[in-house]
Specification:
This protein is an alpha+beta fold and 280 residues long. The chain contains 10 helices and 8 strands. It has a two-stranded antiparallel sheet with strand order 1-8. It binds iron/sulfur cluster (SF4) (2 copies).
Amino acid sequence: MLRYDDLNDISDGKLYTEDDMVCAGTNGCNGCSKCCESDMGNTIVLTPYDMYELTVATGKSFDELLTGLIIELSMMDGIVLPNLKMSEGCAFLESGRCEVHAHRPGICRLFPLGRIYNVETDQTVKKDRASAAFRYFLQVNECPVKNKTEVKVRDWLGIEDLEKNTSFINKWHRFTDFEKRKVNTIREMTDNEVKRLENISEKDLEVYAGILGETDIYEIKGYKDYKEEKIASEKQTSEEKIKKVLKTVIAYFYLDKYDIERDFYQQFDIRLKKCLAAIR
Ligand code: SF4
Ligand code: SF4
């Protein structure tokens, strides 16, 4: 994930709000589709809003997009999220044009802008605003168009009801942070328990086996084998817990098809509450 310190290397060094003017206009890209046909790795990460929009554009469910190799799941900062599959260019690129242009993912809308989170240290940021936690920046090394035109950030994004969308992005970002912390906590607790078991004395392990009602098993297996079995079991349980968290998030926000006749933001808020209750 991009850090605040990396910004000077890739941007013009400025941060923009949605109402600032920025030299990002690519004049309709003039037949260039470099962004869409290059292998961008797993960088075009899809938010639940992107998923809703892709369902509107294609009528396809998450599963159908996944099995159609249009999207894929990737591990990012310890959690699993979907992204456009870009290894052979984007599947939505047809004769140099984006088939889902009006409903393209947020990252596609932004380009050549980027978005950075956690800029609370910036004293100019008003914390009471929905957008307080992030700002936009202009990537200077990616798009070759010379003499880009000035555009207002909100016009460039072209998202209906940007304030609602910004509020959603903030909630989503905070939620994925929570998910990462949750996964890290499970890992840390397991690491501590594994370390404890690795260094446990024979006497303490025998007591431990007794507490678990496994004195007989301990006597049959002996100190070394019983200890190894417990360590392996700790690790397995931890991986299962982590998988459950990751799967639950994908199920609530992506797998469960959105009702495109209903407002996205309401559906998201309901799913957020349910998912938080399920993984807490
Ligand atoms: S590289 Fe620039 S001009 Fe080419 S498709 Fe991307 S944004 Fe458009
Ligand atoms: S969704 Fe559209 S804009 Fe985004 S990478 Fe694919 S073709 Fe390009």
